Amino acid sequence: IAVWDTLAIAEYLNETFPKAGLYPKDPVMRARCRAISGEMHSGFYNLRSALPMNLKSHHAAFKIFSGARPDIERVKTIWHECLDACGGPFLFGAKPTVADAMYAPVCTRFRTYSVALDPTLQSYADHILGWDLMREWTEGALAEPEEIVELEVEF
């Protein structure tokens, strides 16, 4: 089977491994998890454009253009609402869910571009970045050689 869309992958994994707890058991929280996962999947265009994912880079004083700021603030609001409601350390409590997987790349972007986070959100981002799966992904990316692109230009 080939499944290439992130939400379709999440649903396929949830159906295939129902005991994995990829979504919260509570139906209200499960709907909220799906909603914020969908929002990440289909939204935040300006954040994605202004802060491209790059695990090998760090910008201590990156100037974030004004179009990306509302996206960043929306992510912060989502994280606060979830963490306040569920107590963390993940967005829906003690176990990671699809939502955490969907927002994990945002944690890397916030680290790469030094986006200021309050202590609660920084703790969440650090927790995600320290997650075994994220460490494995990051270490794999860092081990990859830089791609060199050569262009031939004729005048």
Description:
The protein has 155 residues and is an all-alpha fold. The mean pLDDT is 94. The chain has a single domain (22-142), classed as Up-down Bundle (Glutathione S-transferase Yfyf (Class Pi), Chain A, domain 2). The protein starts with 5 loop residues before the first helix and ends in a 12-residue tail after the last helix. It has seven helices and no strands. The relative contact order is 0.13. It has helices at 6-16, 27-42, 45-50, 69-86, 98-112, 119-130, 132-143. Helix 2 (27-42) packs across helix 5. The longest helix has 18 residues, at 69-86.
What keyword list fits this structure?
single chain, 155 residues, mainly alpha, Glutathione S-transferase Yfyf (Class Pi), Chain A, domain 2, 7 helices, globular
